[in-house]
Design goal:
single chain; 155 residues; Alpha-Beta Plaits
């Protein structure tokens, strides 16, 4: 079962980035900060994962408590404005591949019981180019639940 702490939630995604051979950078932040915020980090490199701030709903059924997370996960690759259409598609293909690798691990972790349940992969969409300067990628929207009994009840 996933650690129900907020830092445990972030660590799950950060660990995936650390273990993927092509990912170079991880960031957790509100998307309103923009690409300048990501690129301002000394260790910034493409491709990278941008984990958005989640929306969390606390639930219970009288005997069990859980947190339902809704969160966007962005897989972003470099894509200069002057690239040909074929080069843009190649950059999107890389981001889509990274997204797929993450999804594969995410679904396997649900089967292994890491999550209380995975409600759905809501959408996969190309990230709005107005948000990304010289980059492109895919946004994956997830909904899943994590058991919160651990921090709501004394051990």
């Amino acid at each position: 079962m996933m650690n129900s702490s907020f830092s445990g939630f972030i660590a799950y995604f950060k660990d995936w980035v650390s273990n993927d051979p092509e990912m170079r950078f991880f960031m957790f932040a509100d998307v309103q900060r923009g690409m300048d915020h990501a690129q301002s980090h000394a260790d910034f490199e493409y491709p990278f994962m941008w984990l958005e701030e989640p929306e969390i709903q606390a639930r219970n059924n009288g005997s069990q408590h859980w947190d339902e997370y809704n969160v966007g996960v962005n897989f972003i690759t470099e894509c200069k404005a002057d690239l040909s259409q074929d080069e843009v598609v190649k950059a999107l293909d890389l981001a889509f591949s990274l997204c797929g690798r993450f999804e594969k691990k995410f679904w396997a972790d649900e089967v292994d019981g890491l999550f209380l349940n995975v409600n759905e992969v809501k959408t996969k969409q190309i990230i709005d180019p107005l948000f990304l300067l010289n980059a492109t990628g895919w946004r994956l929207e997830l909904a899943f639940a994590i058991n919160s009994n651990m921090y709501l009840h004394d051990s």
